[in-house]
Amino acid sequence: MGKERVLIANRGEIALRIIQACKDLGLDYVVLYTKEDEFSLHVRNAQQEENGFKKAYRVANYKDPNEVFSVADEAECTAIHPGYGFFSENYGFARRAAMRNRPLTFIGPKWEVIRDLGSKINTKRLAKDLNVPVIPGSDGSIYNELEAEEVAEELFFLQKEQGIQHPSILVKASAGGGGMGIEEVSHLDAFRRTYRRIQNYAKRQFGDEGVLIEQCLRDYQHLEVQLLCSSYGEVVHFGTRNCTIQSAGRQKRVEVAPGFDPAVCEYPFDARAVLDRIVKYSVRLAKHAGYDNIGTWEWIVSRDGSPYLMEVNTRIQVENEISACISRLNGSNEPPNLIRDQIRVALGDRLGFTQKDISFEGTSIEMRIVAEDTKRGFAPWCGTITRFDYPDEPWARLYSHVPRDTPYKIPTEYDPNFALAIIWGQDTEQAKERARQFQNGTIIEGKGASGESIITNLEYLYDRIDDVLQF
Amino acid sequence: MRTDKVHMADSGKLLSQLADRISYLIDIKGNSEWSNVGDLLGRVQGLRQSLFEIKEADLFEEIDRIEDRVSFLEDRVAEKLGPAEIVNIVRSPQRFTLMDILENVYDSYTELGGEGDCNIDPAIVVARATISRRVKNKLYSHQVMVIGHEKGRGEEYRNGGCARPWGNDKALRYMRVAETEGIPIHFYIFTPGSYPIEDYPGAAQQIARNLYVMAKLKVPMVSFISEGGSGGAEAIGVSGLRLMGSRSYYSVISPEGAAAIEGKIREGEKVPRELVKHCAAQLKITAEDNLKLGTVDRIIEEPPLGARRDDFPFFHRLRYEMLRATDEVVLKTKNFRAFRAYALKRREEEGKEVPEDFDLFIGWSLTDLEIERLLEFRLKKYMELGKGYFLENRNILTEGIRKTKIFASKTYYDLRYGLLRPHHRNVQKVIEEVSSEGSVFLRKVTEPVRAAYDFVFPQPERPGKIVRSEGPERKSIFAEEWESYVSPLANEDCTVTCPNASKYGCLDLWVPDLYGEFCGVCPNCGHHFPLEYQWYLENLFDKNSVHEFNDHIASCNPLGFQGYNVRLKKDIKRTGRNSSMITFDAEVWGLRLVVAMLFSNFRGGTVGTAEGEKFVRACDVAGTTRRPLLAYIHSTGGIRIHEGTLGVVQMPKCTLAVREYNDNGGLYIVVYDNNSYAGPVASFLGCSLYQFGMRSSRIGFAGPRVIRETTGQDVPPDYHSAKNALRRGHIQGIWDRREFKKNLHDALMTLGGPNLYYK
Amino acid sequence: MDINLNDLLRRYRSHPFEDYPVETPHTGVVFLKVKEGQTVKGPGGEWLHRPGTLLYVIERERNAKRITALWSGQVSGIRLDIEGQFVEAGELLFSIRHQLDKEEIIDRILTQVLYILPAPQRARYFLAPEISAKMEKQPKEGVSVESGDEVLIMSLMKRDTVISYEGVPGALYKVYFKSGDTVEQGSPLLGICPPDKLQYVQKVIRRIRTEWEK
To answer: Is A382 in contact with C86 (Cβ distance < 8 A)?
Structure first.
C-alpha cells in the first residue's frame, strides 16, 4: 500500500492542526480553500511545503461535497479529514466517501454511527435503553396535541415533586437546531398556544411538524467527556471538560479540563462521583453503539448533581486539546495528540494503549479569541488585523490561521474566530493565573472599514477567567 | 337541361359559380397543380374580367367547355376520395356550418349566450330551436337545444370552431338548461380541437367537467359530427346516438399533428405532404372507418364531394335523420317492442329518398323511470365502446375461476353492503353515541356490545380473505424477499444538477443519495426528479399489499397502423407489461383501496382501448368491493394516436364509469405526477372531484409546442406547473413525494370519512 | 442634484462595452465550446427561458455541466491551455465583451439619478421576503418603500441582519444585485425613486432614449 494522502476539508486553525498531525505521522496532505481564504495561513503553509505535488486547491465552497471529492480524486488523496463543522457530522458525506467507486477513508466514525448518534431522538432512546439519564421529556417527535399536553403536564408535575420553584419546559422543533424554534413555557395554560406556534414554525421551516418537549433546566453546568475508540472495540476516555462559559448565542468561549475541581470550589454535590458517573455512562453508550473514532459526550449537570446526557458529538472538537493537555500516557511528560490518534485509528490502527496507561495532571484552559463586540450581543466585527502578537511560553499554545507577519483581512463568509489559546497549569489556580498573564501579553491591532479600531473579546475572556470551574 | 339553364342565367353568376366549384376542387386536392385546376381557375377569372369583350355565343361556348371539364374533374375526385381529401372537404370554407343548419334544418331558433362576435365564445353557438315534422299533413314541432361549434365563414373571431374553456362552459350551462326544461339536445361537432389554453379553469378541466355532467344528463342527446377533432369533439359529444356525415372526419389528432409526431418533425419545420396523407389514411378517420369501429352509430349520406352551404337536399335529409335519431333514443327508454318496430320500419327506409311524412308523432319528454332507463342505456352503450379491440390473454380454466370469483365476491359485497348496511349503520351509530360520552365507565358497558356487534358484522377483511383468496391471477408485483426498494437510478456514482440550481443555489446531488435517501427530491429547493413507477408501488403502499388484477388485458394494434406493431412489441418487451395501465388492490397503512396507475415507460403513458377497459374494470372492482379508487398518474401523454378514435372514445367511456362509481358513493382521488396532458386529463382524470398534483409535476391540455403551433403564442415556462394548476382550481393541493403516503392516508380519511366511502 | 447627461452619454458612446469575465463556478475538467472572437448570445425568449449559447462544459464527479452565456457579446482572451484540463474554482476562462444596449445604458446612468442604497459591508444580501413577494406579484409597477421598512437581509459571518431602509420614501425602481450575491462595500443595492423625482427620472430616460439613437 502506498503512502496515505489526507485531504483536509476544513479551514482555519483546525486545518493547521490537522496539517501538523499529518506531518507528525509522516502522511501526505492536501488542503482546500476558497477565494476568501486565499491569505489564510493554512493555504500559505501548504503552498510553501509543496514538493512534487500540488497541496492547495481553490474550491467554490467548503460546504459543497462535490468539490471535496473532485479535488480528492484529482489530488489522488486516500483519506479525508473533515475537521469540525462542515462535513464532520454529515453521515451522508461519510457514506459517499465509503461507497463511491473510488472509496476514501473518512477520518471519523463509520457513517452508520454518525447517523445513529447524530439523531438526538435516537440517542435519547438508546440512552434510556441503557439506563443512561437524559433530560426528562418526550423521547420522540410528537405530532399530536393531546399527547403533547399529556407530556407537558407530566413534566410540570415531576418538577413540582422535585420542589423546583419555577418549573418550566422547553418546546422545540424536532428538525430545528442552534437555538431556532425553541420556546420556554412556564405555565401549563400557555402550553397549547406555544405548542401550536412551534408546530407551525416547524412545518414552515423544516417541512416536518414534529415537536420535542423537555424539562427546562436552569441552573446547570455544561460538561463533556472526551472518548477515543478504535474499530477493534477499544474505548478509552481522556477525562472531562467544563464548557459552561458561553457567549449569548450559546457559543463556547472558555473551556477547561477537568470538568470540576473540588480544590477551587465547594460543589453542592460529590463532584468526583458525578464525573465518574458521566464517564462511566459515556463509555457504556459508546461500547453499545460500536463507536470507533474520536467523540465527545455532552452532559448537563444540575445543581443537585444530577447528570443528563444531552448529545453526542461524533467528531473532533475545538477544545480537544485541553483534555490532551491534562492527560499523560504511561507517565510521559508529553501530552498525547488526539488529532493524530484520530487519524491513526481511522486508518486502521489499534489504540496502542489502554485506560490504565492514561493518567491526569493539572488543569488546562482554552480561550477562543474572537473579533466580536461582547457588549453588543457578541456581534461579529470585520476588518483588517494589522498586528497580532502573543507571548511564547512553554505552558501556552496558540493556534491561528492569522499570519503574524502581514496584515490580514477577516473574511466575512465565516465565523470571526481567529485564534485559540491553550494554557496549562499544575493546578487550577496556576492555570488561571497563566491565562491572565497570557492575555496581558497578547496584542491585537486592526482597523475596520471606516477606520475604527478592532473590537475583540479579549477583555471579556479576561473577566470570565474568574468564573472558571465555579458553580 | 343544362343548356336551357345557361341561356337563361346571367353569365357572370355562372362564372362565379364555376370559380367556386374550381376553388373547391383546389381545396380538396390541397393544391392547384393537380390536373391544372389552377389554370382552369385562371381561365374563369380571365373570362370574368373580359366579360363584355367576348361575343356572347363564344362566351357561353367557353363556359360550357369549362363546365364539362369541371364536372369531369369533380367525378374524378369523387371516384378516388381519400381520407386526406375528406379532411380538406371538411376544412373548406364552402362547407356547411352550424349556422346553415340552424337556418335550414330548424324552423326557428334563438341564439343563446351571445350573437356573432359579441359573445362569450363565438366558436360555440347555442340556440333554442324548433324542429318540426309532418304527420298525415299535420305539422308537429319539437323544442330542442342546439349546441355546436361554429367555424364561421372566414370570420377570425370564430376561431375556426376551436372552443375556449369558457365556450365549453357556456355549452355546459345550456345543457343544464335543457335538462331543467326537459328538452333533447342536438350537438353539432365542427371542431378541429379545443383551443389549448389553460386560462381558468383550463381547457382540459372544462372538457372533463362537461363529460362528467353529460354522463348523467337527464335528457336525450344526439350528436352529428362533421369535424370531430379529438378532445374538442368530446366536450359536447356524449349522446345516445352519434351520427356522422359521409364526408366528415372524426380523429384523435389532425393528420398534420400525427405526421409531425410520426416523422419526428422539429418545431417550425414543414411536414411533408405525403406523410400527412399517409397518416390520414392510417388514423382511420372517415365515416365508414368510424362506423366499422363502432365509434359512431350511423352515417348521414352527403353528396359525393360533401355538402356545401346551399345543399338543401342534404339539410332536408339531416332534419329527417335528427328527428329519427332523437325518436330512437326516446323510444328505447319507453318500450322495447315499440322501439324495435320503429327501428325496423326505419331500416326499410335506409338508402331510399327521405320520406316527406312521418307516420306517427313521438313526444320527446320522458318520465322519471324512462330517464333512469335513458341513463342506463347510455352507460351500457359507452361501456361497449372499444370492446374487441384489445387482447385478453387468458386460458379458459382461469377464466372460469375468475368468473366464479367475481360472482362470489359480488354476492358477498352486495349482501354485506346492500342488505346489511342500513342496519349496520344504525348499530354503529348507537355505539358511537354511547362511546362518545367518553368515560371509562361507559366503555365497560359498550365493550361487550361491540364484541357482539363485531361478531355479527365482522370486519370486511376477514371474510373478504376467504372469498378472494390469492388466486392465480392476483399476484404480488414484487418478490417478497426484497427488503427495501432502492431505485435502480441510484446505482451510479455520479452527480446531477438540480434544474433550480441557478435560482436557489442548490448543490449538485450525488445520485445514490438523490435516488436513495432523498426520494428523488432536491433537499435544498424541493424539486422532484422523476422516479420510475416501481418506486411508488414499493414505497406508497404497505408491504406485500399490492395485488394486480386484469393484467391479462393487452394493448394491440386495432387500426393496423403501419409500423406500430414493432414499436408496441418493443415496449412490451422493455417494460414486461402489456399496457400502460396497471390496476391493483393495495393498502395504505391498512386502508384498502383500488388503484389505477398510468406509467410513462409504455407508449408514454398514453391511453388506448386496453387502458380504458382496465380503468373501467377497476372502477367496477372498487364499486363492488366498496373501496376508494386512486388514479395515480405517473405520466400520461394523452390518447394513443395509433388507436385513432377508439382511443378518443375512452374519454367518455371512462368518465361515465367513474361517474357511475361516484354516484354510487365511491371516493375517487386523482394524483398527477411528472407530466399529464391531453385526453385523459380532459376526461376521466380531470373529472375527479379530488385531484392533487405532485410537486414539480406538469398538468394541462396541450404541451407548449402544440400551444405555440395552434395559437401562435409562446407560453411561460411554468405555464403547466402544479402551482398554476392549483391557482386555476384544477387541483386541490400539491403533495411532496416524501410525504405522499401520509398525504394520501390523510386524504382518504378526511374525504372518505369513517367508512372510506360516502354512503 | 443634476447630472451632466451629455458628458455621461459621450462617455458611454465612446466605450459602450462591459467586459464580463467567465470564470469556472467550481472545480472540474473544462471543455471549451467557443472560439476566440466568436459572437455568443445571452438568454432569450419573453421570460429569458431559452438559454444562451453553450460556452463550455465542465465535468465534475461525472456530471458534465453545460454552461451557457448569460450575456451576449464577443469571446476574447480565451485560454486554450486549459482545454481538457482540471481547473480550480473561479478560474478565468475568457471574457465576453458585451455591447451595452439602450436599456442597460439607462440603468447605468440612473444609478446617478436615483436615490441609491449602497452596501454597508462586503456581505451576502437577500431581498426581504415581503419585498421580493411583492415584486414577484407586481414587477412592473414598482414596490414603494418608506423609512423604517425592512428591505434587505445582510448575511455576514453566518449571521443575518435585517437592514431597514433609511431615506426618502419612493418606489423601488431598480434592484442591482441577485438575491444571495456577495456585494462589495459601497456598491449599489437598491435604487429608489422618490415620487417628486419621478418626472425627472422619466425625462432622463426619454432623453437617453432619443439621444442614444443618434
So the answer is: no
Among all residues of chain A, which has the CA nearest to that of C120? A449
**Chain C contact for A413, CB < 8 A?**
yes
What chain C residue is nearest to A371 in terms of C-alpha separation? C157
pLDDT of residue B445: 40
Cell of B67: 363546365
* A383 bridge partner residues: A448
The domain made up of A365-467 is a member of CATH 1.10.510.10: no
**Backbone conformation region of residue B139, classed left if phi is above 0, alpha if psi is from -120 to 50, else beta:** beta
CATH of the domain spanning A5-107: 3.40.50.20
Of C46, C47, C63, the CB nearest to B508: C63
> Which subunits count as partners of chain C given 3+ CB pairs below 8 Å?
A, B
Mean pLDDT per block of 10 residues along chain A (471 residues) reads: 88 96 96 95 94 94 96 97 94 95 96 90 90 91 89 91 88 74 89 90 78 90 97 96 87 94 94 97 96 96 93 95 96 93 97 96 96 89 92 95 91 87 96 96 91 93 93 87
CA distance C146 to chain B (A): 28
Residue B141: CB partners within 8 Å, gap ≥ 6?
B107, B130, B131, B132, B133
Pairing of strands A5-8, A79-81: parallel
- Neighboring chain A residues of B493 at a CB cutoff of 8 Å: 99-101
When the candidates are 3.90.1170.50, 1.10.275.10, 3.30.470.20, 3.30.365.10, the CATH number that belongs to A220-361 is 3.30.470.20
pLDDT one-digit tens code per residue, B658-681: 999 999 989 999 999 999 999 999
- Residues of B near C (Cβ–Cβ under 8 Å) read 492-497, 505, 508, 510, 714, 716-717
The CATH T-level fold of domain C103-213 is: OB fold (Dihydrolipoamide Acetyltransferase, E2P) (2.40.50)
Q: Is the ipTM of this complex over 0.85?
A: yes
For strands B221-229 and C188-193, give the pairing: unpaired
Residues of B with CB below 8 A from C65's CB?
Answer: 497, 508
pLDDT number for residue B460: 36
The model's confidence at residue B466, banded by pLDDT at 50, 70 and 90, is: very low
Fold designation for C17-99: OB fold (Dihydrolipoamide Acetyltransferase, E2P) (2.40.50)
Distance separating alpha carbons of residues A157 and A152, to the nearest angstrom: 9
- pTM, entire model: 0.88
The shortest C-alpha distance from C39 to chain B (Å) reads: 23
pLDDT digit string, tens, across residues B61-77: 889 999 999 999 999 99
Question: Would you list the DSSP string of B256-314?
Answer: HHHHHHHTTPPTTSPPPHHHHHHHHHHTT-BHHHHHHHTSSSEEE---TT--BTT-HHH
Shared-domain flag, residues B109 and B70: no
Domains A5-107 and A220-361 equal at CATH topology level: no
Task: Give the domain range for residue B639.
Answer: 531-752
**Could C25 and A60 be called an inter-chain contact, meaning their C-beta atoms sit closer than 8 Å?**
yes
> Which DSSP string do the residues of A441-454 spell out, in sequence order?
H-EEEEEETTSPBP
B22 and B141, same domain (yes or no): no
B717 vs C47: CB contact, 8 Å cut-off? yes
> Where do the H-state alpha helices sit in A290-395?
320-325, 338-346
| Per-residue three-class SS string for A231-243 | CCCCEEEEEEEEE
B388: in domain: no
| CATH code of the domain in which B263 resides | 3.90.226.10
Co-location of B10 and B121 in the same domain: no
Q: Structural domain tally of chain B?
A: 4
Architecture of domain A136-215: 2-Layer Sandwich (3.30)
Q: Is the pLDDT of residue B483 over 50?
A: no
Which residues have CB under 8 Å from B115's CB, separation 6+?
A: none
